[in-house]
Specification:
Shape: flat
Strand content: under 5%
Oligomer: single chain
């Protein structure tokens, strides 16, 4: 659920700001902050902790934290170096997200009674991923790639919503007969017991 919310927000942001100059530079800086902040917090926690309370796991985590700190700093300071890499990552992300939904729908086609049109959005996401990776002319237009990525993230969330509604429908169909078949207390028997108690 949290992943879907994050991807939905990312899709909206990419669509709204796709025309902004150096959008990938800002994207690289945001990713750098994502690496940097957790690393700084972890290192501060280890440094503040008393020496006797530190474990071997704490010391093992210092190395990747320092690596994340350095990588985050490089992405923030030299963000322009990651333009091409971010475009490739966007294409790979779209491929992975589209394939995830296609495979999930294929595996769930019997249990959830998946309709054929459920595959339209995931296949469109896969197509956009392939085009962004295979066409250099498309990658040369950064705003187009960013816009396509934002739209595809919204399509990913729409497919997730379809799957959720299908699963919910199946769960209701399973639980409803169980509720209907539950034994109902015999009112006449209950009235007889009450009458007997009153006579006594």
């Amino acid at each position: 659920m949290l992943t879907n919310v994050i991807l939905l927000l990312a899709g909206i942001i990419l669509i709204v700001f796709h025309h902004v100059p150096n959008i990938l530079v800002w994207g690289a800086r945001v990713m750098g902050a994502v690496f940097l902040l957790p690393a700084v917090v972890y290192l501060i926690m280890v440094a503040v902790r008393h020496a006797d309370a530190r474990t071997s796991t704490d010391y093992l985590g210092v190395l990747p934290a320092v690596g994340g700190l350095c990588f985050g700093l490089v992405m923030i300071i030299k963000a322009h170096l990651f333009d091409g890499i971010l475009q490739l990552l966007m294409g790979v992300l779209l491929l992975v997200l589209g394939l995830f939904h296609v495979i999930f729908l294929l595996l769930s086609r019997n249990s959830m009674k998946v309709k054929g049109w459920y595959h339209i959005c995931p296949l469109a996401v896969i197509l956009c991923g392939v085009l962004s990776l295979a066409l250099p002319a498309l990658r040369s237009s950064v705003s187009t790639v960013v816009l396509l990525t934002g739209i595809c993230l919204l399509l990913f969330n729409f497919t997730s919503l379809q799957e959720y509604l299908a699963e919910r429908k199946v769960r209701r169909a399973v639980t409803q007969p169980a509720v209907e078949s539950a034994p109902v207390a015999d009112d006449s028997a209950a009235e007889t017991i009450v009458q007997d108690n009153e006579l006594e």
